[in-house]
Design goal:
The structure is a single chain. The chain is an alpha+beta fold. The chain has three domains: 8-63; 70-108, no CATH class; 114-207, no CATH class. 40% of the residues lie in helices and 15% in strands. The chain has four helices and seven strands; from the N terminus they run H-H-H-E-E-E-E-E-H-E-E. The chain has helices at residues 5-18, 20-63, 83-101, 175-181, and strands at 111-113, 117-121, 143-145, 156-157, 169-173, 188-193, 200-207. Strands 2, 4, 5, 6 and 7 form a five-stranded mixed beta sheet that branches. A two-stranded antiparallel ribbon has the order 1-3. It is rod-shaped. It starts with a helix and ends with a strand.
Length: 208
């Protein structure tokens, strides 16, 4: 014997109407069950996000830098690299990161370091020693950092945008290095590389 579908539906509706409180509790139980099932992945995602934030904040404090930082190295082995070439590489790296991660690049820092050099005072300089080739025990190198003036404080000498450029290249040294070696603003030196005796004339433009 077959039972019509509409008859079954009508019977169910009449039974639900006859027990409204039971029907309401049943609907509430179904809603709570669905909400519980849906909230599990949402809750798990929220907990994972909080754990990720805590770990990134801890890493940022340990490294003393932004938590999501990427560093790329490029070593010039055969021929010198100009600042323009470095900027071009910087833009290429930024495009690759933005395309692969889908995240915007908030800040870019260009750091260019030259070859190992040694510092010597001039014959009439205050620290000239004809028997000592280098004045500082550790080797030196030229370092160019883009927009460094917004991250350091000049304690003596000229700001970066007010350096007098002439025959000698202006350089800025760290205060600790200046105190250790007795260097002062305005003093002139020559820098030499291991591969060449051709000096690079510089003067202390400031201390940071």
């Amino acid at each position: 014997m077959s039972v019509p579908l509409f008859g079954i539906i009508g019977l169910a509706i009449r039974r639900l109407r006859s027990r409204p409180w039971l029907t309401a509790l049943s609907l509430l139980g179904i809603v709570l069950a669905i909400g519980l099932v849906i909230s599990i992945p949402v809750f798990a995602q929220g907990v994972s996000y909080l754990v990720l934030q805590d770990e990134m904040a801890s890493l940022s404090q340990i490294k003393n830098r932004a938590p999501l930082t990427m560093r790329f190295y490029f070593a010039a082995r055969r021929k010198p690299v100009t600042i323009a070439m470095v900027r071009d590489l910087q833009q290429q790296f930024a495009r690759v990161i933005a395309d692969k991660t889908g995240l915007p690049i908030r800040e870019q820092i260009m750091y260019v370091e030259g070859p190992t050099m040694y510092l010597r005072s001039l014959p009439d300089g205050p620290q000239y020693d004809p028997e000592a080739y280098d004045l500082i025990a550790t080797p030196l190198s030229f370092v160019v950092v883009e927009n460094i003036e917004s991250h350091i404080q000049i304690v003596d000498g000229r700001p970066f945008d007010q350096a007098v450029r002439g025959e000698r290249m202006p350089i800025w040294i760290h205060e600790e290095t200046g105190n250790l070696m007795g260097m002062q603003v305005g003093e002139v030196y020559n820098l030499y590389t291991q591969a060449s005796d051709q000096p690079v004339p510089v003067y202390i433009a400031g201390i940071w």
